[in-house]
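Could you show me just one protein sequence together with its fold in token form as a worked example?
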Amino acid sequence: MDQTVEAIFEIFSWVGIGLGALLLGVALIVYVADGTWLPVRAVIDDTDTGRVARWHDDEVGGVNEAVLTPDQDAEIGDADMADVFYRRGVRGRIRMTQGSPAVRGVVRLGAGLLALGVVAMVASLVLLFTRG
């Protein structure tokens, strides 16, 4: 019975640490690929195609605009202005949060697996030394 528990802890430790480290590496790559998102105050206008957010961008120059998605439109509501984030160097893209939800999800999953691996490794070592 002890050997079965030790084997399970060993499997959890290797899988947890290995997959956790791999996912954290993927999260780093996705974070870098996501680019830099800067805060800006945007004016919300109604057009024939839907609601648009317009903001001034010093880097690209001029006024930029992006059509709001239904989720963004619902989050902004009836406001005439909103605090949004635009991607540096790219026209026509905004989002409501600075950090990417995909990156946050991958980081949390990777950290959880890494924590599971560390806890399983500690439990395996405790069983090894208590057994004598």
In short: Residues 44 and 78 are 9 Å apart (CA to CA). The chain has a mean pLDDT of 90.
